[in-house]
Every structure is written in structure tokens, then in C-alpha cells.
Prior knowledge:
This protein is mostly beta strands. The protein has one helix and ten strands, in the order E-E-E-E-E-H-E-E-E-E-E.
Amino acid sequence: MRFLALALFTFSLSAWAQVTHYKVDPTHASIVFKVSHLGFANVYGMIGGVDGKFTIDEKAPEKSSIEVSAKVETLNTMDKKRDEHLRGPDFFNVKQYPTIILKSTKVKKSGDNYEVTADLTLHGVTKPVTFTFHQMKTGKDPWNKFRTGGETVFSVRRTDYNMTYMSKPGEIGDDVELRISLEGIKDEGKK
């Protein structure tokens, strides 16, 4: 899922830094989802295997970009049987659609945050999504690498992505909340 590169936009760079390229740190990036189960409770899960890149242009934020992906096979709701069902043809159909991809089409700075419009490809369907990416921190880590990071929360309708199994009112929720948390390491090889 080249999906969560949203973190591109969450970094305050020093005045001299015009354009900074980052690689997503997959060990510090995640997608957490929440969906209603029959209206009784919410089920939470995580999708890992997050990879990607983003570019932050502090002087011209509209030139910033992000592209992230995630591997649906890593889906985990802490219940093996449910996870197998979610990976199957009733839901994600991992064999046919192994990745989720998020790729920005428009970025606008808003205070310390970024307003992002992106194409989200899920279950073979691409739809535009808009969200606010919240800046968290930018700076050197204890290993002297330059990092930045942040997160966003937004919802999608699973039926918009042809995931219609048990989608009637009172069944499994149509609205799925996605929380994407990204951390990127400055790509020293790119200028």
C-alpha cells in the first residue's frame, strides 16, 4: 500500500531547505481501520507492509507529493478466522488486489497541517479522497537521521470500492475509518 505517504506534508523544515525527499520508514508506519460490526461494537484492525515516498516543498507546498502502498495480506484484527475471511473474496480479495495505494493529486498547506487530495486505490477501484495531514515532529533522531512524521484520520465507504458483503443497514458498517500514521527518513541520495 503505497498508501500512507501522507506524512510527506507534516514537516516544518528550516528556511534554507526548499525541497526534501523522504522514504517511508515501514517499521514506523501503519494503517489502522475501524468498522462497525452489526451496530453492537467496532472492530479494529491494522494493515502493515507500508512503503513509499514523499516530497515536501516548503516554499511551494503545492509541489509536495506523496505515494504510499500497503500490503493487504498483513491485515490483522487479532482473530485468525476473521482475518482469513477479510482477505478473501467477500472483502479485500488479496489474491487479486494485494495492495492499497494512496497517491496525492493536490497538496495545500494550512497552518502546520496539509490539506491533501489523493487517489486511493483499494480492491481494484480508484477514488479521490481528501484529508488533513497533521504535522507531529521534524528533526534528527538518536541515530542522527533526519525524520518527519504525522498522521491523518478519514473515512471511506467500502461499497464505493465494490466491497458489498453484508453492507445493508444494521450489518457490517459501510463507513470505514482509516488512521494513517507515517514516519519518513530523509533520502540523502536525492537533492
